[in-house]
């Protein structure tokens, strides 16, 4: 995945955004991070790159989508989190990651 992040505005004050996981999230669960309270964002999906073997036994990298992860879901440092929250909360998370969002209206 590129470092370019997509963000879709939902109404005037809210957005669904892709944000890169932080290295400090690696191996921790969503619940352990108290993510919703800490960042005022809800994780509604996770994009992960996973290595699999194809029919010929060659290793290939595929993108796996995990929909509506639970509190006991472990995060990885290279995950892309799909979050929903206020534009302000999304912007604050971007500032923590030093990545500028590219917003598009729905």
Question: Which keywords apply here?
Answer:
globular; 42% strand; 19% helix; alpha+beta; 106 residues
Q: Which SSEs are present, and which pair or pack?
A:
Layout: E1 6-10, E2 14-20, H1 30-33, H2 35-39, E3 41-53, E4 59-67, E5 80-86, H3 87-97, E6 102-105
Parallel strand pairs: 1-6
Antiparallel strand pairs: 1-2, 2-5, 3-4, 3-5
Number of strands: 6
Apparent shape: globular
What structural category do the secondary elements indicate?
alpha+beta
Secondary-structure element series = EEHHEEEHE
Mean pLDDT across all amino acids: 85
Written overview of the protein:
By secondary structure, the chain is of the alpha+beta class. It has helices at 30-33, 35-39, 87-97; strands at 6-10, 14-20, 41-53, 59-67, 80-86, 102-105. It has a six-stranded mixed sheet with strand order 4-3-5-2-1-6.
Kindly summarize this structure in a few lines.
This protein is 19% helix and 42% strand. With 106 residues, the chain is an alpha+beta fold.
